[in-house]
Amino acid sequence: MEIEVVKHLADATSTTTFILLQNTSSNTTVPPTSTQHQLLQLTDTTAPAAIALAFLSPLALATAIVNGAVMAAICSTKKLHLPANYLICSLAFTDFLVAALVMPPAALYVASGAWRLGAAACEAWLSVDMTCCTCSILHLCAIALDRYWAVTKAAAEYARRKSARRVALMIAAAWLVSVFISLPPLFWRRRTGLTTVTVDDGEDGRQCAIRHDHVGYTVYSTLGAFYVPMAVILVLYRGIYRAARTLYQKRGSSSRNRRNLGSQSSVDRCRGQPPQPPQPPQPPPPPRAFCVSDAALTTVDTLRAGMCSSSDGELTEGRSQQGCALRRERKAAGILGLILGAFVLCWLPFFLKELLVGLRLAQPSPRVSDVLAWLGYANSLVNPLLYTSFNDDFKLAFRKLLRRKEHA
Questions:
Q1: Pick from 280, 281, 289, 335: CA 20 to 30 A from residue 377's CA?
Q2: Tens digit of pLDDT for each residue in 257-303?
Q3: Which fold has domain 46-248+325-407?
Q4: Maximum distance among all Cα pairs of the chain, rounded to whole angstroms
C-alpha cells in the first residue's frame, strides 16, 4: 500500500508544522506515530510568549523601581523619618519583594504556559506569593488605622500612640498574620495535595497552582487575607472622612465667630459703650489638622489646612468660606475614593474567584486566573504612587534623588 506524506512546512515567521498522512488508494487517514504525534502537539507559542514578557516584565521592573525609590527617599531624607512614614517604608519593602520574588516567576510561567522550575521552587514561590501579597494588604489596613488615630485622637494622645515601637509592633503583626495564613499548605501538601505541582501530559504540562481541596482553608485564607482587612479599611476610611468633614466645619465656624466678635467690638466702640472685659486667654488648640493634600492622610503641624485665605491674607467671608470647606470635603472624598477604589479594583476580583473556586461554584480558565492574579500584583505598583505622590515632602525627596543621580 502506497503512503503519501504531505508536509506543510512553516515559513520563516512561524514555528507551526502540520503533517498529514493519507492513503491515496482508499482516501483514509493513517493514525500518526508517536514522533508524528509530538510534532502535531507543537503550537505557535512564540508570539504570545513574547507579548506576555514584553508587557509583564516592564510591569515587574517598574514596581521594583518605584518601591525602591520610596525606600531610598525615606531612608535618605531626615524630614521623612517619622513613625507614620515607617509604615509607608515597610509597605514599599513588601511590594518590592512582590516585584522581585513573585512577579518574575509568574511572568515566566504565563509566557511559557507551564511551570519549568521544579516542585520545590513551585512550593517556595506559592508560599512567598501568599505571604507577601497578604502582608501588603495588611499594611494598607495598618496605615488606615494609623491615619484614623491621627485624625480622631488628640495631638498628645496620637503622639504617644505613633511611637516607633508601636509602628514596629504593627509591622510585625502584619507579617505574623501573613505567615499563619500561608503556612498551612506547607504542612498539608504531602497528605492532601493542597499545594503541589500538577503534571498533566508530560513535562510540558506541569502546572504550579494551589488546589482548593480544603473548603475550610479557602474560607479561612480569603477572609484573613482580604475580606476582613477590606471591611476594616472601609470602616476606618469612612471614619476618617467624617472626622475630616467635622474638622472643616469647626474651622469655618471658629473663623465666623472671630469675625462676629470683631464686628461687635467695633459697634460697641461707635455707640460709646465700654468695651467688654477681655476674656482670659484660652490655650491654643493642638497644632493638628487633617491634610487632604497628602494621600496618606497624615497630620501636619499647622492649622492652615483648616482655613481659607484671600489674596490679602484675610479670611474670606460667607459663601466663600463655605465654598472652600466644600472644596476641601470634595478633595478629601476624592483621595479616599481613589485609595479605596484602587485597592478594591485590584484585589476583589482575584479573591472573589478564589472563594468561588473553593466553594465549587466556579471553574475559571487558566488565562482568566492569570489575569486576575496579575491585577492583584499591579496593586504593588499602585500603592507607592498613591501614598507618596500627593505628599510635598516625598516630592521634594524624589527630586533630590534625581539630582543626585544626575550628578553621579
A1: 335
A2: 555 555 555 445 545 555 555 555 555 444 443 343 343 444 333 33
A3: Rhopdopsin 7-helix transmembrane proteins (1.20.1070)
A4: 129
